[in-house]
């Protein structure tokens, strides 16, 4: 985590759209404009309540460090200014934009949100060996939502598989215990899709 106070105002560029009615700190999250699949208006957030019409960042992997820093610190677009982040955090973000993105569109059916080409039994074995200790055998040990609107592993896998793959692949910042990035554990993309396939069968209702 960046160690900063959450902003209370809207991200300045937010005023350029009116289809996404969220406000405050959430409007500063990269994913809210650019999507968990990094494709912006061309991807999973191209419609629905998250739609803003803003472009994705997938092509940023072809840009230079200098150009990306200019875009992140307001030099290119004054209202796209994240210079409050430390130099180290900005460097990490640039590194992710250049080398950390993955096109997951071949692995998720955009209409049904179902995993494509996954091996559920292999995903179950991976889940039991790496995930169940924290999330529980049925994925409901941790509630990411609240009592009125519970959200579990199965909920995210079914409702937002792009978010699921991003978090499995890269970990979850600020979680306790820390959720590891499976790319650091040697998992392949197919391993992640297998776990998604299995997790989409996990329960989404409160126990």
Sum up the structure in keywords.
globular; single chain; mainly alpha; 8 helices; 207 residues; 33% helix
Overall description:
This protein is mainly alpha-helical. The protein is 33% helix and 0% strand. The protein contains eight helices and no strands. Helix 2 crosses helix 3, helix 4 crosses helix 8 and helix 7 crosses helix 8. The two termini are 31 Å apart.
Brief description of this entry?
By secondary structure, the chain is mainly α. The chain has helices at 30-34, 65-72, 87-99, 120-130, 132-135, 153-159, 161-170, 189-199. The longest helix is centred in the middle third of the chain and has 13 residues, at 87-99.
Give the mean pLDDT: 96
What's the overall geometry? globular
Measure the end-to-end span: 31 Å
Q: Biggest β-sheet: count, sense, barrel?
A: none
Helix proportion of residues, in percent? 25-40%
Classify the secondary structure makeup into a structural class. Answer: mainly alpha
Break the fold down into its secondary structure elements and pairings.
Blueprint (H helix, E strand, L loop, with lengths): L29 H5 L30 H8 L14 H13 L20 H11 L1 H4 L17 H7 L1 H10 L18 H11 L8
Helix pairs in contact: 2-3, 4-8, 6-7, 7-8
């Amino acid at each position: 985590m960046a160690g900063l106070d959450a902003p209370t105002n809207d991200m300045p560029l937010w005023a350029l759209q009116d289809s996404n009615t969220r406000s405050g700190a959430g409007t500063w999250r990269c994913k809210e404009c650019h999507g968990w699949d990094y494709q912006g208006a061309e991807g999973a957030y191209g419609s629905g309540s998250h739609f803003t019409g803003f472009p994705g960042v997938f092509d940023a992997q072809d840009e230079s460090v200098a150009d990306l820093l200019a875009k992140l610190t307001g030099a290119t677009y004054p209202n796209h200014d994240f210079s409050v982040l430390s130099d180290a955090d900005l460097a990490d973000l640039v590194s992710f934009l250049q080398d950390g993105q993955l096109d997951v569109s071949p692995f998720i059916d955009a209409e049904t949100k179902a995993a494509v080409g996954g091996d559920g039994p292999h995903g179950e074995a991976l889940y039991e060996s790496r995930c169940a200790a924290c999330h529980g055998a049925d994925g409901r040990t941790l509630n990411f939502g609240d009592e009125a609107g519970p959200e579990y592993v199965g909920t995210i896998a079914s409702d937002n598989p792009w978010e699921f793959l991003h978090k499995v692949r890269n970990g979850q910042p600020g979680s306790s215990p820390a959720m590891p990035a499976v790319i650091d554990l040697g998992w392949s993309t197919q391993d992640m899709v297998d776990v998604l396939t299995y997790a989409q069968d996990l329960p989404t209702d409160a126990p």
